[in-house]
């Protein structure tokens, strides 16, 4: 059981320490200001003062939210989650489009696609790959800044006619800092002035040694326009994923990360959630950032209603009480009371830190991607 010092309890209630000592004496407990009392006694004191008993520490409130760790035997392979990064105009958007069109399922449906900030493709042979395509790369930079690493692999796009530029270097640094493996897509090889060899040589300066030069960095020459090399790129991603053995337990309450969230007319708050473990189902109660809710509907990246979503699946969630932020966690909890407790606590904490930072001034997050 939790213990707390008399002084700390007094601080949390904004009461004088001496008053707390006196109240304890009334309850038959002799304790000085620096001594600890147990949680039950503390609760009694709090109600004596006429305050509501509340769990107040981060540890208390967040404890157990993510549940227990998964045993090795519960883990199942899951698709890799891939983010495309690189310098502006080097072809990130075009490459994501080219990759998306390798989806054999969307191909059949005529390629009708929704933009929800992430999508999953199924390639020949049945393997799946999830791509994060949030504009502004909130997916990577913001989420990382907020401690949520969602990406398993980074495709570093470098235009073969332009070489490594500022934002390429930033992307390399971000990937390295996050410990995320890089696969290099040397793009625009259809252009007459393309020089893939130069790109590979430039990579050496950043300690990325291409396989062709004896290292372990896969470099794939591609053209997002002519589609040359796209299948090779997909194969390389699957190869990397196989080597790294990405796994998760699908048989537990879902948890994941918000990739995008917005307030939509007629639909209310909508969030795209990347499920990281467990399986999310319609009806589940959840907390996300300082919001909570109950899943009213789930939609996949084609806009189809689905009943559930498992590890590495991006899914649009309806039924939120408010709009969370990209990078917020998303955790299924046992009941409404627990969801509200966590959400309220976090909202209060956020309010306080906003008050605190309002005076100190705060730098804006670097915008490295378009
Ligand atoms: P982003 O800023 O990194 O998202 O780059 P875009 O995908 O918007 O591409 C920037 C420009 O490069 C556009 O005019 C694209 O048509 C062009 N582009 C992208 N990929 C290729 C390619 O493989 N070959 C050629 N020739 N042009 C490309
Ligand atoms: Mg773009």
Automatic annotation (TrEMBL):
Residue range from the parent sequence: 294 to 663 of 873
Subcellular location: Cytoplasm
GO molecular function: translation initiation factor activity
Binding-site list for GTP: 86-93, 133-137, 187-190
Described function: One of the essential components for the initiation of protein synthesis. Protects formylmethionyl-tRNA from spontaneous hydrolysis and promotes its binding to the 30S ribosomal subunits. Also involved in the hydrolysis of GTP during the formation of the 70S ribosomal complex.
Organism from which the protein derives: Fodinicurvata halophila
Keywords assigned: Cytoplasm, GTP-binding, Initiation factor, Nucleotide-binding, Protein biosynthesis
Protein name as annotated: Translation initiation factor IF-2
Domain Tr-type G: start-end pairs: 77-245
Family statement: Belongs to the TRAFAC class translation factor GTPase superfamily. Classic translation factor GTPase family. IF-2 subfamily.
